Every structure is written in structure tokens, then in C-alpha cells.
């Protein structure tokens, strides 16, 4: 799922703002998976001693009781509409919910205590039944732990017996969140509830991913609304003001996958397929057919996965809901996937191609989770890369099937996201020891580019090594060929942080590997080496494969006839490659005389951070790219652009055009005015218009933003508003993030990040988030991170992000020091004739 942290590379960027954007990036990742991790705050088990000399505490529920089935009744008392009438007393809105639940469980070890999770719920009275002897057990006491564990501890008069079948029934009451957590109210006239997970905030439960159980849910909601959940409606009953919707039992699943919504949304059906797919959204979005693209592509992707995995999706139905407010971009709840509107709604002629790419990618990722994550789930959050890496890798295959032109950018984005984060000393292995991932901060810290992007890249390398067919067979049968060898190789890549750079000398044939770090003066503390499957090709031979371990291969890499050698073909390996200068020159010559997208991909994936050869190679490559792509296009750009708009909308060229235009518009606003605004280019042009203008232009854009009901257009305008160079307007914009009527809760943090990315807004944003009022309003998540950030003795997600920001800044400074002269020289040479 959607994640991506962006750290500015400019030397001028001060640490403070890097820290902000790192926290922001982390917060955005955190948001994406808040649902899975929210409040998994495990502290020490209460019965164990807490001295500094004790071994690291185990902060997990005891395994003495294992849940099997829940029966839950939830009743939110919220009014979806309050109509004011003359002479009639209007009811007060209420954010209260209550309900009852019974959990059936089995005892695996005798115990007098029942531990489960319950967060900010009042719980009473308790009934514990023995189903083998048809008796009742006396509860002597119960208490909520007053710490981060969220434990509800219930003490019984006598022991529960091994293999005994019991149940616990209770009533609960809680408050609906205004901050998009657990069950919350979306600020939209069509009131909407969503409780994607944070199950312990809704009802007391065993809220850990491997404590799978069957859930049977009944929701009581106001007449005039309707409820959706993971399964279809089994029965409904109406009682004057209230409707009781009972859902079928779910399959055995993790509590974080439970979801329900209450809304007045309408649905669009997907084209006929084996599974009945419905896409739900605001009635006006359905009427305008903004759900049409998602409805079509979902059917296509689901069918692809069923064929690919040779395993049917678990239900006969699939609901997907476009929510006006949702803090993750999307959440893979089994059978009821929830999305932010922007991640699902697409408007032909208004939304950009990039937006379409985002929608396709997110849908492909969430659908992959219906197998990887929902059917097969990681045991604990230290292995979250298994969920996320597999879903990300599988989404490449699905995107290639549904929208082939999007795939290459998608893979390259992930490769570089992983390369960037994993080249820091502050990175971590894919798979961490469970004891290292216990606190909320440690769990949140695992939801990053390593788990998503590196996870996917390592799987891609493995699939390339064993062959895609064998890889798929291995997934299907969970018993791939040469299993031993595979797990042996994988260990190098999953239990060690970082990745290697391979250096090849084509004159002597020497080849060696080294832990790659951005900071070339840093010393890798662990002396890491990898077992590396290397693919390579030359201009006179086809594809070759060799292994590189500590000893290295034979003489494969000697260039006997002056041929070039290119390793890591199609960038399928998770490593960088460096060569001797002669080979670089041959490769660059090849690139210049016979360019192809694939070869660019290679060179891009390896080139940017090499050591001695870096300056020369960088200079030459910039030279080639400049000549090929930018300079050639500059004079004819508007004409070419107009021409290219007529071409098919869906190719890499459109992306390239977008990038070129953002460069050109920055310097030459003139070019931007020469053609009508194509949807793919709108965001760049809006941004430049606001940046070039003053109060009048900004207010015009603000007015448009407020009045627009189109998700795409609104998003482009929200970004553009952060582009102004007027600090007082940026200050005004920052203050709007405190008012959910102006900037929606889910957009508040990213709006501050956008402002922080504007050079004129960096200091403002940093000062803004440190103001006392900041934590009072709607920035709860960011605020929590800042509090932890201040108390940085704790090794939590914010702390790791801070360390990464510091390291990244040092690397940026070093990079500029080393490359400043080369780049400057190049610019002076290239611009000498322009006077
Ligand atoms: Zn995911």
C-alpha cells in the first residue's frame, strides 16, 4: 500500500525541516497502517518483574487462551442527519456507542486469568461459562491495566482447564472518535462510520494478528442508513427508528481485518464476473460515474489473481467503499476494502494519468492482500514485510496485466525508495527478531520502504532467480523446488540490513562486493556480505547467470574483445553495480548511440552514488540525458506536447512529458501558456500559476478548492495552494489545517508537509507544529509523534525517522561537496554560448 516518504535533497534544506518531513513521511506511512497497528502497545506482562536487569519483557497476550468465535452487537447512537424544524426541539448529536459481545475460547494451559485487549471502553457485567460442564465460573475481579498494554485482566475464582471450552460475555460502552480512529464520524453530510480495525476500541478482544477467530457482527443503525461489513447481510429487522443488520459469520481471520460502515452511499456493480463486486460512494459520485474506472479495473485484477494463484478469492462478494475521510489511503479488510475517495474515484477528462496509476496500483495492492495477509497472515508485526512485500510484488504482476504501461515506473519507484532508505546505517533488516518489535513505536517503525519496497524487490530477485513459474508454483504449493537453496539465499537478504554494491573490473576480471552506504566515509559495522545471483550481458553475448559469494566467480567478467559488460540485467537484482572507467565509457557510448528505455533503467538504477568514478560518469550521463531528452525538446516542446496529447493516453511518454513540463514551467512560464491545460499537466500548471501570482490568484484557487466536489481537481488545487511564495498566505494556509471545515482531517498532515516542501514555507511549517495550539486540534497523529520526538530516548518510529533524517542530511552535504565542481563546470560549459 501507498506509503512514500520524501526527503528533500537540497543542501539548503535545514535539518529542522528534514526532521519535519521525515516525521511527516513516517506519519503518512503510519497512517496507511494505523489500522493494523493502532494501539498494539504491548508493555510487559503484568505478572513479570520489571527490573533493569531482567531480560527484555514479553509484551504479548499469554497464549493460554485462544479465541475461536465472537458474537458482537454494536449500537452507535449517532444521528446521520439532524433536520431543524420550527417549534421542534432538535436532538443533540451523540457520539456514544454501546453493545455486547461474547467470545468463545479454548484453554491451552490452566489459568485463573483472562487477558484481552480493551481500549477506552467501560466494561460490565461479566459472565464466564464453561461449555463442557454447562456451568458458570465466578469472576472475582476485573481491571483495565493503567498502562500502554491496553490489557483487560479478569480474575476467576478457579482455574480454567486445559482443552476446556469457555465463553466470556460482557457489555461495553465507548465514544465515537472525531479523529478518524477506530469507529469515527466522517464530516460529510452523508454520515459515515467506519471501524476498519482498532478492534479493541470497539469491543474487548484478543487483538493480535495470529489470534484468528470467526466474527459474527450485528449492527444497530438508524433507519434510512445501511450497514456494510466483511460478509453479506444475513437478516435485518426494523424497529421504528432503528435497523438491526446481522451479518453472516466471517471465515477465521485476524481482528485487524474486521470492518463495518454505516452510510447512505450507493453502489455501482462491476461488469459481470464470478465474484459480485460492488463499488460504493457518495450518491453524486455514483451518478457522475466516478466509480466506473475502479469498478472495471477491480474485476479485471481480481480475475487475474484468481487465475494466477489458482486459488479463488474467499467470498462470492467484494465490497469497496470510497470514504470521504479515511486516514490510511486504503485498508484491505477482508471482503470490504475501504479507500480514500482519491484512491478510488476517477473522473474521465479531469483526473490525470498519474492519478489513474495511483488508483490501479492501490487496488492491485489491496486485492493482493485478500490472499497475502488475509488468508495467510504474518505471525507478528516483526514479519510485516511478508504481508506488504508480497502484496507489493504481486501488484506489479496485476498492474502489468491490467495497465501494462504503468509497471516500469511502479517498479523503479519502489527500487529507488528501497535503495534510498536501505543505504543508511540507520536502516533495519526485513525480518527483525520478534523481541525487537514490541512497543507501538517499534511496530510503527516496521511500516516503511524496507517492508514494502525492499520486500517486493527481494521477492522479485528471487522470482527472477528461480524463474517466475517455479516461484508461483512455490507460492501455490508452499513447496518450491530447491527449497533449501532458496531459504539459504533468502536469509542473506531478509536477516541483514542494507544491500551490496558490486564492483566489476572488466580489464582484470576482478569482482567484489561491499555493503553500500550513501555516506562513503561511514564504516559498515557488521562486515556484511551477500550471496548474490548476478545476471549479465555483453554486446556480443546473451544473458548469463553467475553466483557471487565471498570468493566470487571465475573469469566471466574480462572484456576480451573490447566489449562492454552490463550486469544486473533489467535491474532485477537488489544491488548496485559499479565498473572500471573503460567499461563505463563503453556503456555510455552505447547509451548515446543506441538508447533504449531498458538500458536507461539499468544505468539509472546503478549510477547515482558511485565512488571514484562518480563525477566522470555523472557528468557524462547528465550530458547524454540533456542532449537526448531535454535540449532536443526545448525548442519544439509546445508543438510536440500538443501533438503528443493526441497520442494514446497511457504510456510512459505521458509521465515523461509531465516531468519535463514541471522542469520547463519552473523556468519558462511562457511555455505553459501555449497550450490548453491537459488533465495530466494540470497540477504542475496550477502550482506554477499560484507561485507566480499573489493574493488574488491564491484566493481564486482557494475558492475553486472549496467549491469543487471533484476529488481529483480538489487534490490538485490543495497542492497548488502550497506553491505560493508569499509567506503570509502560507501562514494563512497553515492555520486552515486546524479547521476541518477548511482542510479535511485526513489531509491536514500532508498539507503541512506540502508547505514544508516549499522553500518559503520550511521555517513556517516547523514553527507552526511547535505552537501550543497544534496538539489541541486535529493533528493528533503528528502531535503524538512530536511528543515522542521530543522524548527521543525511546527507540520508536519517530526516533528512527529522526536518525534517518540526520544521516540523510549528512549524505546530502557530502554529495554536494563531492559533485559541486563537476556540476557547476558542466552548467558553465553548456550555457557559455547563451549570453
Ligand atoms: Zn498493504
TrEMBL record:
Pfam families: ERAP1_C, Peptidase_M1, Peptidase_M1_N. Keywords: Aminopeptidase, Hydrolase, Membrane, Metal-binding, Metalloprotease, Protease, Transmembrane, Transmembrane helix, Zinc. Its EC number is 3.4.11.-. It is an enzyme of class 3 (hydrolase). GO terms for cellular component: cytoplasm; extracellular space; plasma membrane. The chain crosses the membrane at residues 12-33. GO terms for biological process: peptide catabolic process; proteolysis. Residues 293-494 form the Peptidase M1 membrane alanine aminopeptidase domain. The keyword Zinc applies. The active site is at 366 (proton acceptor). The record marks 452 as: Transition state stabilizer. Gene3D superfamilies: 1.25.50.20, 2.60.40.1910, Neutral Protease Domain 2, tricorn interacting facor f3 domain. Zn(2+) binds at residues 365, 369, 388. CDD domains: M1_APN-Q_like. Residues 86-257 form the Aminopeptidase N-like N-terminal domain. One of its GO terms (molecular function) is metalloaminopeptidase activity. Residues 676-770 form the ERAP1-like C-terminal domain. Binds 1 zinc ion per subunit. Its cofactor is Zn(2+). Belongs to the peptidase M1 family. This is Aminopeptidase. It comes from Xiphophorus couchianus.
Amino acid at each position: 500500500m501507498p506509503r512514500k516518504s520524501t526527503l528533500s535533497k537540497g543542501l539548503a534544506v535545514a535539518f529542522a525541516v528534514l526532521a519535519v518531513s521525515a516525521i511527516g513521511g513516517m506519519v503518512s506511512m503510519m497512517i496507511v497502517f494505523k489500522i493494523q497497528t493502532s494501539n498494539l502497545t504491548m508493555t510487559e506482562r503484568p505478572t513479570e518483574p520489571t527490573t533493569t536487569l531482567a531480560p527484555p519483557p514479553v509484551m504479548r497476550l499469554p497464549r493460554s487462551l485462544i479465541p475461536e468465535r465472537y458474537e458482537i452487537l454494536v449500537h452507535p447512537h449517532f444521528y446521520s442527519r439532524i433536520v431543524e424544524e420550527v417549534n421542534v426541539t432538535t436532538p443533540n448529536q451523540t457520539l456514544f456507542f454501546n453493545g455486547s459481545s461474547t467470545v468463545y475460547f479454548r484453554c491451552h494451559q490452566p489459568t485463573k486469568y483472562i487477558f484481552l485487549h480493551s481500549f477506552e471502553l467501560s466494561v460490565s457485567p461479566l459472565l464466564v461459562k464453561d461449555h463442557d460442564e454447562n456451568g458458570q465460573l465466578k469472576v472475582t475481579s476485573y481491571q483495565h491495566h493503567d498502562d500502554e498494554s491496553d490489557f483487560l485482566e479478569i480474575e476467576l475464582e478457579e482455574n480454567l482447564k486445559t482443552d476446556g471450552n469457555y465463553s466470556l460475555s460482557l457489555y461495553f460502552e465507548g465514544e465515537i472518535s472525531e479523529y478518524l480512529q477506530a469507529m469515527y464520524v466522517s464530516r460529510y453530510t452523508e454520515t459515515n462510520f467506519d471501524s476498519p480495525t482498532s478492534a479493541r476500541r470497539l469491543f474487548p478482544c484478543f487483538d493480535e494478528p495470529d489470534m484468528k477467530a470467526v466474527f459474527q457482527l450485528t449492527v444497530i443503525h438508524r433507519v434510512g442508513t445501511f450497514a456494510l461489513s466483511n460478509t453479506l447481510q444475513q437478516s435485518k429487522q426494523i424497529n421504528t427508528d432503528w435497523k438491526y443488520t446481522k451479518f453472516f459469520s466471517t471465515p477465521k481471520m485476524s481482528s485487524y481485518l474486521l470492518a463495518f460502515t454505516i452510510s447512505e452511499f450507493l453502489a455501482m456493480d462491476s461488469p459481470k464476473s464470478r465474484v459480485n463486486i460492488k463499488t460504493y460512494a457518495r450518491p453524486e459520485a455514483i451518478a457522475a460515474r466516478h466509480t466506473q474506472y475502479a469498478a472495471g479495473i477491480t474485476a479485471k485484477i481480481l480475475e487475474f489473481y484468481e487465475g494466477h494463484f489458482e486459488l479463488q478469492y474467499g467470498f462470492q462478494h467484494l465490497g469497496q467503499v470510497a470514504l470521504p475521510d479515511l486516514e490510511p489511503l486504503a485498508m484491505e479488510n477482508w471482503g470490504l476494502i475501504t479507500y480514500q475517495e482519491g484512491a478510488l474515484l476517477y473522473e474521465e477528462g479531469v483526473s490525470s494519468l498519474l492519478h489513474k496509476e495511483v488508483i490501479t496500483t492501490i487496488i492491485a495492492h489491496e486485492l493482493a492482500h485478500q490472499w497475502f495477509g488475509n488468508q495467510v497472515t504474518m505471525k507478528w508485526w516483526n514479519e510485516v514485510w511478508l504481508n506488504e512485500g508480497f502484496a507489493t510484488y504481486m501488484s506489479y504482476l496485476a498492474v502489468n496485466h491490467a495497465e501494462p504501461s504503468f509497471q516500469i515506473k511502479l517498479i523503479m519507484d519502489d527500487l529507488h525508495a528501497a535503495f534510498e532508505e536501505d543505504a543508511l546505517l540507520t536502516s533495519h533488516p526485513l525480518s527483525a527478531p520478534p523481541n525487537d518489535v514490541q512497543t507501538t513505536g517499534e511496530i510503527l517503525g516496521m511500516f516503511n520502504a524496507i517492508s514494502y519496497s525492499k520486500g517486493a524487490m527481494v521477492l522479485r530477485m528471487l522470482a527472477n532467480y528461480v524463474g517466475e513459474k517455479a516461484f508461483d508454483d512455490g507460492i501455490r504449493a508452499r513447496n518450491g523446488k530447491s527449497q533449501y537453496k532458496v531459504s539459504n539465499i533468502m536469509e542473506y537478504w531478509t536477516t541483514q540490513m542494507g544491500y551490496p554494491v558490486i564492483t566489476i573490473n572488466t580489464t582484470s576480471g576482478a569482482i567484489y562486493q561491499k555493503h553500500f552506504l550513501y555516506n562513503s566515509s561511514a564504516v559498515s559495522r557488521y562486515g556484511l556480505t551477500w550471496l548474490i545471483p548476478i545476471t549479465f550481458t555483453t554486446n556480443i553475448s546473451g544473458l548469463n547467470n553467475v553466483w557471487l559469494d565471498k570468493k566470487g566467480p571465475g573469469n566471466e567478467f574480462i572484456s576480451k574483445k573490447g566489449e562492454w559488460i552490463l550486469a544486473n540485467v533489467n535491474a532485477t537484482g537488489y544491488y548496485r553495480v559499479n565498473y572500471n572507467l573503460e567499461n563505463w565509457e563503453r556503456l555510455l557510448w552505447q547509451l548515446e548511440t543506441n538508447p533504449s528505455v531498458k538500458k536507461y533503467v539499468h544505468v539509472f538504477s546503478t549510477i547515482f552514488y558511485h565512488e571514484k568514478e562518480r563525477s566522470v560518469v555523472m557528468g557524462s550521463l547528465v550530458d547524454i540525458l540533456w542532449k537526448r531528452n531535454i535540449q532536443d525538446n526545448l525548442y519544439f516542446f509546445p508543438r510536440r506536447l500538443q501533438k503528443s496529447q493526441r497520442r494514446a493516453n497511457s504510456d510512459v511518454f505521458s509521465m515523461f512529458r509531465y516531468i519535463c513540463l514541471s522542469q520547463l514551467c519552473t523556468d519558462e512560464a511562457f511555455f505553459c501558456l501555449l497550450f490548453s491545460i491537459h488533465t495530466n499537466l494540470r497540477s504542475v500548471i496550477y502550482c506554477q500559476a499560484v507561485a507566480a501570482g499573489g493574493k488574488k490568484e491564491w484566493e481564486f484557487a482557494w475558492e475553486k478548492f472549496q467549491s469543487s466536489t471533484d476529488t481529483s481537481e480538489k487534490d490538485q488545487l490543495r497542492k497548488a495552494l502550497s506553491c505560493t511564495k508569499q509567506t503570509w498566505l502560507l501562514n494563512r494556509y497553515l492555520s486552515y489545517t486546524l479547521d476541518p471545515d477548511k482542510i479535511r482531517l485526513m489531509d491536514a498532515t500532508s498539507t503541512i508537509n506540502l508547505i514544508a516542501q516549499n522553500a518559503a514555507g520550511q521555517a513556517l511549517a516547523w514553527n507552526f507544529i511547535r505552537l501550543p495550539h497544534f496538539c489541541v486540534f486535529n493533528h493528533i497523529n503528528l502531535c503524538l509523534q512530536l511528543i515522542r520526538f521530543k522524548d527521543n530516548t525511546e527507540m520508536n518510529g519517530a526516533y528512527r525517522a529522526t536518525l534517518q533524517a540526520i544521516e540523510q542530511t549528512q549524505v546530502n552535504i557530502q554529495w554536494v561537496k563531492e559533485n559541486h565542481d563537476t556540476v557547476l563546470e558542466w552548467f558553465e560549459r553548456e550555457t557559455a554560448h547563451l549570453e
